[in-house]
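Colleagues,

For the teaching module next term, I've prepared a clean inverse folding example: a structure given as tokens, and then the sequence designed for it. I'd like students to try predicting residues themselves before seeing the answer, so please don't circulate the second half yet.
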């Protein structure tokens, strides 16, 4: 490197606080690579940063004069071909990247006005996704043709598909007092349907209304026939360790089950379907792989996690929870790539005390109300555009 180039490099590093802009050519050891960036304008503006490998946290802070959001990703490289971008509309004016001398990748998001960002990492196939919610509404400028079309379209109710697990020839788990899972979850689902039906702006649809068996693919097809916005599957846990207790909420996992118990439960549920003639496990795994690729390209999993967390919080208000966070496992019934979906394990039917509670109509009502409140909390923040709830929440600001 000649003296002129070296002097220029030093001036650039001084100008950007130890940062050499992407393309400057400094090579650093890194444990992760930033492969893709997307700006999604939905209820809020959300920024998606897809990483190959793992990042040990991120430093996110705001700067004013002009307004900027800065994201520092330690030990991270920038993928070749990921270039700065400018946007003609919305709160995000542009995004640019710089490699710092200590191996940190700095991402600068230029903003047209101040934001209230929150961020978190979620797992994705082969790495992580950093989700940054700017806390700013994602609608484009008022008065555009597309906006007028949305505003003028007839408003509709949010459609929630309620899926009582098992049924018919598949009894599901059996409790110590011979309580059958398929009966309990149908009772809870009917109570949940009644509560949703009495809730303004929500229209429930039942995947099964009686003691019949519906194959896993058929459950998803029925949800699609009704143009469901959300999918809630109701189950009752069983586990060899009889003292296991508490409610759980699951979403689909990108990288497999998030715990040994989650893996065991997912396997038992899926094997039940295979046993009763629905799908083979080999075919299921192939279908899941295809679905996971689709999920990695949209926000369905992130929405599912958000809804699951809201439901789990409400379940924690009425009883024990098995794990304090939403778990992820490869339940086949959650594999719809475009419908946010959760599976609620109401309690452990294999636990004698919880089996007794599950048979109590009063506790079934409390379970149904907790699920209704959790879904309602989610919809208060993320009701689908074009629905009455979305329009009303926007009007209230």
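(Answer key — instructors only)
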């Amino acid at each position: 490197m000649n003296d002129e180039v070296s002097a220029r490099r030093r001036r650039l590093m001084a100008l950007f606080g130890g940062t050499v802009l992407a393309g400057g050519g400094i090579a650093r050891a890194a444990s992760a690579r930033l492969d893709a960036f997307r700006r999604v304008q939905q209820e809020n503006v959300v920024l998606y940063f897809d990483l190959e490998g793992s990042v040990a946290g991120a430093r996110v802070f705001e700067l004013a004069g002009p307004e900027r959001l800065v994201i520092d990703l330690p030990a991270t490289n920038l993928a070749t071909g990921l270039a700065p971008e400018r946007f003609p509309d919305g709160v995000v004016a542009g995004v640019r990247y710089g490699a710092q001398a200590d191996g940190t990748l700095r991402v600068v998001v230029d903003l047209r006005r101040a934001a209230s960002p929150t961020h978190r990492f979620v797992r994705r196939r082969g790495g992580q996704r950093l989700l940054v919610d700017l806390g700013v509404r994602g609608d484009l400028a008022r008065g555009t043709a597309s906006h007028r079309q949305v505003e003028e379209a007839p408003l509709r109710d949010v459609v929630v598909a309620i899926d009582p697990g098992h049924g018919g020839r598949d009894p599901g788990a059996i409790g110590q007092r011979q309580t059958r899972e398929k009966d309990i979850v149908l009772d809870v689902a009917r109570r949940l349907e009644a509560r949703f039906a009495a809730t303004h702006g929500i229209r429930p649809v039942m995947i099964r209304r009686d003691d019949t068996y519906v194959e896993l693919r058929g459950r998803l097809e029925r949800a699609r026939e009704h143009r469901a916005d959300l999918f809630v599957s109701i189950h009752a846990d069983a586990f060899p360790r009889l003292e296991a207790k508490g409610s759980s909420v699951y979403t689909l996992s990108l990288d497999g089950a998030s715990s040994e118990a989650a893996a065991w439960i997912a396997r038992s549920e899926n094997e039940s379907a295979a046993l009763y003639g629905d799908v083979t496990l080999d075919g299921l795994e192939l279908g899941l792989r295809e679905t996971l690729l689709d999920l990695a390209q949209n926000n369905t999993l992130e929405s599912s996690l958000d809804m699951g967390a809201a439901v789990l919080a409400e379940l924690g208000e009425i009883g024990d929870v098995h794990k304090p966070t939403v778990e992820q496992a490869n339940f086949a019934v959650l594999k719809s790539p475009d419908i946010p979906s959760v599976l609620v394990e109401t309690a452990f039917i294999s636990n004698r005390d919880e089996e007794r509670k599950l048979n109590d109509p009063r506790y079934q009502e409390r379970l149904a109300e907790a699920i209704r409140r959790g879904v309602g909390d989610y919809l208060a923040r993320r009701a689908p555009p074009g629905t009455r709830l979305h329009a009303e929440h926007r009007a209230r600001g």
